[in-house]
Amino acid sequence: MCDTKNTQLIACRLPAALYLMTLALLLLLGSCHKDDSPAPEQAHLNVKVKSDGDEYDAVYLDIQQLWTRTSTGGGKIEANKRLNILGVQKDSIIAGGHVPHGTIQEVMLKISPTGNQIVRNGSSYPLEMPQGQYIAINITGDKMLKPNETHALMLDIDLSDFIEERANGKFAINPSITAALD
Hints:
The protein is α+β, with helices and mostly antiparallel strands. It is built from 2 helices and 13 strands; from the N terminus they run αββββββββββαβββ.
């Protein structure tokens, strides 16, 4: 029961004001709803790798993600894998996910700036990335990702072009890889 004194009157009205503010907030939140329109059609892309060259015992790359840009938008596939590309079986998927369908305009491989190395004659050497951590993927042939279909992107890494031995005894990554889409 509320008394007519000011302090008790304020205390009595406070729960009513709080109730009205809560009701208004619930009505406002209830009027906001998630967009029920269907998600845009996407293509599923599996990334595979094959490598050529016998001058190294191992080539370790810390692959973070694959970034795509198509005629309908951009997308990325998380990989977060450190792998010896010489030890990957031809049909092994190193990353996979959904990306926008359409004509491929650009594909980039994001490599960690540290932790990449080669092993040659039992000795390990770090791989430098003087041009940044993005490697351009040049796709030969068909460049269309069809909606709601699964495609495979085969990265073809020719180690004699991909790794450059410098005069100072260091090794660097050439930021370009050829790939085929099927």
